[in-house]
Structures are given as C-alpha cells and as structure tokens.
Amino acid sequence: MAGQRSQESYIDVSRPSRNPGPDGIIRRSDRTPDTPPGLSRYQQSVLHQGRIERFFLDNIKKYSNDRIKVERGVAPASLEINETEVNDPTAYPLTVELRHLTEEEATAKQHGGGDVSDGLFRSTGEIVHAKYVIGCDGASSWTRRTLGFKLEGESTDFIWGVMDIIPFTVFPDIRERTIIHSAENGSLMVIPRENNIVRLYIQLVEVKPDAAGARADRSSITPKQIFNAAKKIFHPYEINYDWCDWWTAYQVGQRVGTNFDAHGRVFLAGDAVHTHSPKAGQGMNVSMQDCYNLCWKIALVTKGIAQPSILKTYQSERRRVAQDLIDFDHRFSRLFSGRPAKDIMDTEGVSMDDFKESIMTGHLFFQGLSINYGPSNLITKPGDTGKQGDGSEVAQSTNISAELFAKRQALATGLPIGMRFASFKVLNQSDGRPWHFQERLKSDGRFRVVLFAGNILDPAQKTRVDEFCASLDAPNSFLRRTKGELIDSVIEVLTVHSARRHSVELLRDFPEVLHPFDNKFGWSYDRVYTDDISVHEGFDDAYKNYGIDKERGCVVIARPDQIVAWVGELEDFDDLQAYFEGCLVLPESTDGVNGNSP
C-alpha cells in the first residue's frame, strides 16, 4: 500500500499571495491522517515493489514445495486460441510459444530493443498448452496487442519526473508524506522510504508535449533536469543528494481497455487494461486487486468447484473499478498539478479544500474499501446484470426485487452487499481470545457463511438457529454437496452470537455443524464467536457496528475476496441454497459425505 508509517501527513502549500511579503516561503496549510481513523485496523506503509515481489516469490516457494517457479527472461512469441474448445472446461484451447532469452537478449528487450517475433533473437523456444492465460504485461502489453484490443482515453499535458534519493536538506517534513504546491514552478510529492531514501514525484513545468499533441520525448529528460525542477519547488529550502537509486520520467495518460478478456480464456490485468498516474501507489494496488479478483475465480473453476460462468464477472466488476480509477485520477492529477488559488476569486487556481477532499477519497479507493460491485451470480443485487456500464456480458444473478433487496440489506446495514466485509473485534467462544473478525476470513479460496445467531439464550431464537442448522446439515444442503473431502473444504461456516460468553457452552448450546468434528483434530474451536467484552481489549460492539439486531441476527455470505455477496434471514435458507447452486458445481447429494462424526 502506498503511504507512510507515521500517523500524519502534511499538505504543504506555497501561496505567496496569502503570506505577507514576496518571500515565497513554503508554509504548512493542512494535515490529514495517512490512514483515516476507523477505516482499517492497518495503517499505510511504503514498500518497494521489489520487496513486495520478494514476499510473493518466497511464499510461492514455501507453499508450493518448489512445484511452482517464476522464470525470468522469458517472452511470448505467439498466442493461438482454438475457439472450438473454449467452452469445454477440460480442454486446453490456448497454445503459447515462449522464448527463453539469453542475458544479452533480455537486456535488449528490457530497454526496448526489439521483439522476439522479429526473428533476430537466438533464444530457445518452448510450446505451452494452457487452459488460461493472464496478461499482466504492462501498458505496452504484448498480450493486449496480440488480441487486437485497445486502450481508450487521453494523455494530459503534465510531465513528471521521479527520483529515489537520499536527500540532504533542512526541509522539516522530508520524512513525512508531503505534497507541495508552488505558485509558479509546479508541484511535488515527498514519499519517505526505507534506509533514508525518499521518493520525489516532481512536476516538470518546463517540459511540454509538442504542438501536435504527441507524447513528450522522455529520452531527452535527464536526472539533472528533474532535480533542478525539484529545487525550484523546494525554494527557499535547499536540497541536494549524493546518491540516486533510481529515476524515470513519464507523461500522465488515462486510458481503459476496451476488453478485459477473450473467450473467457485469455485475461488482461493491471496496466495492460488501465493506465494512469502512478502517484500514491494506485497502479500497483489496483493491479493487485485485479489479479486477486480474477485468480480466485480461475482457481475455483480449474478445480471444478465453481461454474465457468463466474469468470464473466471479472470484466463487469473490474472494468467499472478501472473506469472509476481513471475518473478519480483525471480529477486528482489536475488538482495535484495545478497551481494553488490566490484567493476565493481565483477560479483558475486549485482549491486546497477540494484537494484535501480528493486525498481522503483516494485513501478509500486505493485500499479497495470504496469498491461496490454490481449484480451477478456472485452478488445478489437488483438491476440488469447485462448493463454494468462497460458493455460486458455477465452471469445472471438471483432475481431479487429492489423492495426485497432493501428489506434484506436492512438486516445488516453495516455490511453493504457488493462491498468489503468490515472488521470489528469479537471473542472466541472457547478461549475468550479477541479477534478482528476479518482475520477469520482468510484468503484461502473458501466462501464463508456467517451466521449471526443473535441471542441464543432466548428459546424462540434458539429454535430458529437449530432449524437453520438442521437445513444446513441436511444431505441435500449446498454444504454437504460441495466438492471437498471435508465439510468446510469449499464453504466455511462461522458463527457470531450476542449472548454473554460465560452464559453458553460450545458443545452444549451449538449444533455440531457449527463446530464440526475431525477424526484427527477433534472438535473445531475456532468457528464460534461472541460479541462480548474482552477483559484486556474492551468491547467493539460488533452487532451494533454491523447494523444487526442483537436478538434475531441474520445470515451473510462472504466471497473468497471478503466481498459481501448475500444477506438474509435465518428462514431464507432456500434462497441461500439457490445462491450457491447458481455459482458452484454441486453434485447430487450423497448421504454422509463431507464430514465425520465421533
């Protein structure tokens, strides 16, 4: 995530017209929290892309037992799609020719020195037959060009330079995430990094695109030119450096792909389908969200757990996000790159109140907390699933009226359907340990059915819970029919009740399906929680914050990506069943499968 570990960041603004005298001294104009309070249990931090990649590589090696390896210096040469096989889930309709490049060739390609398809390379070849291909190959995506897809949008006139340096300066906020608007010399963003490195995003006001509107010639831009621009913005503070770790220059372009996939077999993600300014880590953060949205779906389809139709939701969900990103970036870039307004009558200048509001909006967007997915067979919402604002075809969702949707959403007003599952602390029923509930929604590819059981000390409510669990445990239930050796292999059931923890007992008061038995590990003690007071960490009042009635409760489905997919009463089991029948592969019921009893 883009940001800085400190609790606060500064917006620093140079507004000579508002200050006495023509000194042009930079003055702090406002402060905003890096992580708005209550937004997340995590704070933002700055991590270099190479470090994040290392986390992924280490975990791939750890959890795949070296069966999966990431290869460097490999480039695609051709991609063929057998359209007669794309609808066969067992087929491998994609043929990809790969070239393993020599070190010399890889270096040449990295610097734009040719394409493996031009026949100039000495590399060795390899043919791969695949079910799916994902092109995460950047703004100049080979995959996108091969498919004949395009990016639509525009380039701005804003040219920016980026430098990672160890600065020598007395500027007081050099270790804070700081934004400087100068009166005449452009804008600058300071992002502190590890080992005393600071990343500077520097507007180059003296570099312009040519008169014909073509992109600026980045090859003519030098580190000296970029740093001289930074000096002017920092004035009257002096800044110098002895060591530069990395630098680049770019022109802000805002474009969205016309298509995110071909035949539901070849997919594009990240910069391959949306380009924008790289400030605040929005490119990497949103790109990883693209891939996560896509990959859990492909994984479940490949394993035969989910229906292939769920793959249609990738474009309908993520293209809307990409368009929202472009719209936000369009506004943010212009606010960021504009000069500050001299006064309220200066309509051509940037209002710092608008700029601050834009930053706060960005916090929500970059962290994925403002995402609100539309209707599909994965999101139970009213509306036309064929009109997602992007022209894509999506899998049909459960037919639900606006009136019924509003009634069900009212059961959990703090868990909007289509948005991320919020997190509040609850206590484990068995040992009293407090947990952020979202910690129990692990990213392991499983759906969650969350039973908010209400006050189970009330006899009528206890009867409702028992009847719901009887339906859940029946041989024809979706839970018993999923493709997995254990009852929780595909769908995990979690319970949060509202009675005092010491007034109930796990094995006495909760049906076995809520704490299933395993012949090797015994009873499950990590499935049932209570909205009660922690001796050490107070009370988070989860039911109140989720907007759920403490007496009657409700049932919620969370997708594998923690997005709320369905909300209903305990009596709405048939509709709950229909949800999973609409997106998962559920074999005919077989009594006694998916679970063991003592």
Automatic annotation (TrEMBL):
InterPro entries: FAD-bd, FAD/NAD-bd_sf, Phe_hydrox_C_dim_dom, PHOX_C_sf, RIFMO-like, Thioredoxin-like_sf. GO terms for molecular function: FAD binding; oxidoreductase activity, acting on paired donors, with incorporation or reduction of molecular oxygen, NAD(P)H as one donor, and incorporation of one atom of oxygen. The keyword Oxidoreductase applies. Keywords: FAD, Flavoprotein, Oxidoreductase. SUPFAM superfamilies: FAD-linked reductases, C-terminal domain, FAD/NAD(P)-binding domain, Thioredoxin-like. Residues 1-43 are annotated as: Disordered. Pfam families: FAD_binding_3, Phe_hydrox_dim. It comes from the Eukaryota. Residues 106-328 form the FAD-binding domain. Pathway: Secondary metabolite biosynthesis. The keyword Flavoprotein applies. Belongs to the PheA/TfdB FAD monooxygenase family. This is Phenol 2-monooxygenase.
